[in-house]
Design a protein that fits this description.
Helix content is 30%, strand content 11%. The radius of gyration is 22 Å and the shape is globular. By secondary structure, the chain is of the alpha+beta class. The chain contains 9 helices and 12 strands. Helix 3 packs parallel to helix 4 and helix 7 packs across helix 8. It has 2 domains: 149 residues, Four Helix Bundle (Hemerythrin (Met), subunit A) (Up-down Bundle); 277 residues, paralog of FGE (formylglycine-generating enzyme), CATH 3.90.1580. Strands 10-9-8-11 form a 4-stranded mixed β-sheet. Strands 1-4-12 form a 3-stranded antiparallel β-sheet, with helices on one face. It has a 3-stranded antiparallel β-sheet with strand order 5-6-7, with no helix packed on it. The structure holds fe (ii) ion. Fe (ii) ion binds next to helix 3 and helix 5. Fe (ii) ion (FE2) binds next to helix 3 and helix 5. Pfam families: DinB_2, FGE-sulfatase.
Length: 437
């Protein structure tokens, strides 16, 4: 096969993988459930479904392919900026069977476009970028739909094998030496605009937790009265804690025998060595303060994940440049839960930090901004309109993130009050005197 044929085959594989997952998430429930809004924070599943097809039509059929529109009449309805999530149930949305037909027609045309396109010659298609962007877009909506499933009331409809057990002890903390490292990327072909360009960043020596904070550790914060002690919370965090009456992560329930946790319709005792999930930024920050630590900055997180002290270069992933597989990271909804600490020793970074990729998104203490030299591509609404001090950066992906939408440079962002996403945390701190060598 030529390089272009190999690239076409790879694109076809990732597009098919995304669509299989979209079907798994939408076939699992009946029509009523697809149309219902399960939370004002979320779209009806059928909106996400048709929106996936509409974005694919706009970028790949019309823009890259230069083909006639399939359904130009629905563009406005599926424009995320024109229609906030809370308003989407009132729109005259495509019915589930119409959404299935529409997405299939679009996908058939995309495979024609893929066969005809040289995948080089201009930036939108070089190395298959637009196809990779659309595969990532579908997988990101699949993760959002998985979050909608977690908010949905009723019996369990999704099944998956449990994540692997812990197979190696993990140190409590790792010292990361001070000095420069390369943050972001200029070479990753499907990296999005906000990950670019690669640039040198000096980071002072710091200490980071070798694993995400677990349910058991977080329980210590609750039992110590952490939710009732304003010392640990920022002013905004404390106001939010009180207004929303937060007392524990979302989906936790107190029980005479200990805390229970409801996950995708199944209620079970909390698993102590599993990373905590469904905490907002304010809770993550309060936990870190209580623990005598802080959240890492985004640069600290990325240096822990990518910096290879032997070569001085930044890796694509913590373990190296190879694509993720099931021995290295818990990604892609292969399991419906984060894996316990120590489950992926082969996925550790060069500096010895575990489970940075997969399991839970990790809140950082950094606002979402463009890197020095940022240019919006292919449109301002992808990232640039979100830059500012409203959004906090999250890193590393969750068990619900697909490998195509996850790498050492990948950046996610959300409001500090959000906790329907699969987000947890790990802590960092400044070295103590003498500790930094
Ligand atoms: Fe979207």
């Amino acid at each position: 096969m030529t390089d272009t044929e190999t690239l076409r085959a790879h694109i076809a594989t990732v597009l098919a993988r995304a669509r299989d997952r979209t079907h798994t998430l939408t076939d699992a429930v009946d029509e009523t459930d697809l149309i219902a809004q399960h939370s004002p924070l979320m779209s009806p599943l059928v909106w996400d479904f048709a929106h996936i097809g509409n974005q694919e039509e706009l970028w790949l059929v019309r823009d890259v392919g230069g083909r006639e529109p399939v359904r130009a009449d629905i563009d406005g309805m599926y424009d995320a900026f024109q229609n906030p999530r809370r308003d989407r149930p009132q729109l005259p949305l495509l019915r589930p069977d119409e959404a299935r037909d529409y997405t299939r027609v679009v996908r058939d045309k995309v495979f024609d476009v893929l066969e005809a396109n040289a995948l080089k010659g201009h930036r939108l298609v070089d190395e298959g970028f637009a196809f990779g962007m659309i595969a990532q877009h579908e997988q990101q909506h699949d993760e959002t739909m998985l979050a909608t499933h977690q908010l949905r009331a009723g019996a369990a409809v999704l099944t998956a094998p449990p994540p692997p057990a812990s197979r190696a002890p993990v140190a409590a903390e790792v010292l990361i030496p001070g000095g420069p490292f390369t943050m972001g990327t200029s070479t990753e072909p499907w990296a999005l605009d906000n990950e670019r360009p690669a640039h040198a960043v000096h980071v002072d020596a710091f200490v980071i937790d070798a694993a995400p904070v677990t349910n058991g550790q977080y329980l210590g914060f609750i039992e110590d009265g952490g939710y009732d002690d304003p010392r640990w919370w920022s002013d905004a965090g404390w106001r939010h804690r009180r207004t929303e009456n937060l007392t524990a992560p979302a989906h936790w329930h107190p029980d005479p025998g200990g805390w229970l946790y409801t996950r995708f319709g199944v209620t079970r005792p909390l698993i102590p060595d599993e990373p905590v999930v469904h905490v907002c930024f304010h809770e993550a920050r309060a936990y870190a303060r209580w623990a005598g630590k802080r959240l890492p900055t985004e640069a600290e997180w990325e240096k822990s994940a990518r910096f290879d002290p032997a070569t001085g270069r930044s890796r694509r992933f913590p373990w190296g440049d190879d694509e993720p597989d099931e021995t290295r990271a818990n990604l892609g909804q292969r399991h419906l839960a984060p894996a316990p600490v120590g489950a992926y020793p082969r996925g550790a970074s060069a500096l010895g930090v575990h489970q940075l990729i997969g399991d839970v998104w990790e809140w950082t203490d950094t606002d979402f901004h463009g890197y020095p030299g940022f240019t919006a591509f292919p449109y301002r609404e992808y990232s640039e309109v979100f830059f500012g001090d409203k959004y906090k950066v999250l890193r590393g992906g969750s068990f619900g993130t697909d490998a195509v939408a996850c790498r050492g440079s990948f950046r996610n962002w959300d409001l500090p009050v959000r906790r329907q996403i699969f987000a947890g945390l790990r802590c960092a701190r400044d070295p103590r005197p003498g500790e930094a060598g």
